[in-house]
Each structure stands twice: as structure tokens, then as C-alpha cells.
Amino acid sequence: MRKLVVCITSLAVLSPALAQTAAPSPSTLDKVVASKTMRVCTTGDYKPFTSLNVATGMYEGIDIDLAGSLATSLGAKPEFVASKWATLLDDLNAGRCDIVMGA
């Protein structure tokens, strides 16, 4: 009986601590919706999917249009982040962007 009381007491003491650490971190989607900005890593060097217009400094192409449409549907604005093919996934994993677009 004493072991049962010790176990129940231990659970009662640990339960609040476990409940506090069990909260999930916000998803990328939650962060985009809350910030109203969707950061998009893109290379800007692969027409017709993504290209950087040097005259305007704006990205253009199919991927850019799709990213803009997705951002709008989430109530956010797209923010394009310059990247390179070799570092697209590294940039995503490092949190420099929320999604990558590359053909």
C-alpha cells in the first residue's frame, strides 16, 4: 500500500510539470497566419518559374504567382528571400523562409 501512495503522490507532483512541457510549438502555418507574412526562398534564375527582373528588382514567374496566391489565401503577403539551388533546403531548415519555390 505504501508503494501505491508514493506512486500516486509522485504522479500528482509531476503532472503539472509534464503538462507545461507538452505544449506543441506553433507550426509554420500558424506562424505565417499570425505574422501575415509568408517568406518564400527562391533562386530567381530559372525562367519561366522564377526570375529576378533586374530592372524592377521584383521576382516574376509561375512559382512567384503561385506563392503570391498561396499567401493571399492565408491572409498573408509573400516576402521573397534570395537563395541558391545548393542552399534552398538549408535555408528552409535554418528558418530563413517558410517555404521554398523552385520549379
Automatic annotation (TrEMBL):
<dbReference type="Pfam" id="PF00497">
    <property type="entry name" value="SBP_bac_3"/>
</dbReference>
<feature type="signal peptide">
    <location>
        <begin position="1"/>
        <end position="19"/>
    </location>
</feature>
<dbReference type="InterPro" id="IPR001638">
    <property type="entry name" value="Solute-binding_3/MltF_N"/>
</dbReference>
<protein>
    <submittedName>
        <fullName>ABC-type amino acid transport substrate-binding protein</fullName>
    </submittedName>
</protein>
<keyword id="KW-0732">Signal</keyword>
<feature type="domain" description="Solute-binding protein family 3/N-terminal">
    <location>
        <begin position="39"/>
        <end position="102"/>
    </location>
</feature>
